[in-house]
Amino acid sequence: MKKVLVIDDEEMALMMARRVLEDAGYEVKSTADGPQGIRLYEEHHPDAVLLDLGLPSMSGLDVLKAIRDFDEKARIIVFTGYMSSEFEKQASRYGALF
Fold first, then answer.
1. Taking the C-alpha atoms of 10, 13, 40 and 46 in order, what is their torsion angle to the nearest 10 degrees?
2. At what angle do helices 60-70 and 34-44 cross, to 10 degrees?
3. Using CA atoms, how far apart are residues 64 and 98, in angstroms rounded to an integer?
4. pTM for the complete prediction?
5. Nearest-angstrom CA–CA distance, 50 and 17
6. For residue 32, how far is the Cα from the chain centroid?
7. CB-CB contact of 26 with 69 (8 Å)
């Protein structure tokens, strides 16, 4: 079973992502906390990460960097309601997908 980690501070987004992904046959771990997301990645080695860049506890870019430092081949898809070209440039440097 493929594993997906969802990191988003919006509870509704976490619930919806979990429901859709589990219905599609994925094992899902989720958190609203950046540092916890990093720990979950290190513990469970998911096949993909869905990462909100707009996290309150820790910058989504910092989470992206930390996961990338731990696993340079991590598949990370980023999203945010506040995308700017600067966010996109920075996230792209760390191999994020949009």
1. -160
2. 20
3. 13
4. 0.86
5. 9
6. 10
7. no
Cα–Cα distance for residue pair 88/12, rounded to 1 Å? 24
Beta bridge partners of 52: 79
pLDDT digits (tens, 9 = 90+) for 45-90: 999 999 998 888 898 899 999 999 999 999 999 887 665 666 667 7
d(CA 18, CA 47): 15
Closest CA to 30 of 2, 58, 49: 49
pLDDT at 26 over 90: yes
Say how many CA atoms lie within 13 Å of 48 toward its Cβ: 14
Length of the chain: 98
Cα→Cα distances 43→13, 70, 78, Å: 23, 11, 20
Measured between alpha carbons, how far is 41 from 1 in angstroms, rounded to an integer?
Answer: 16
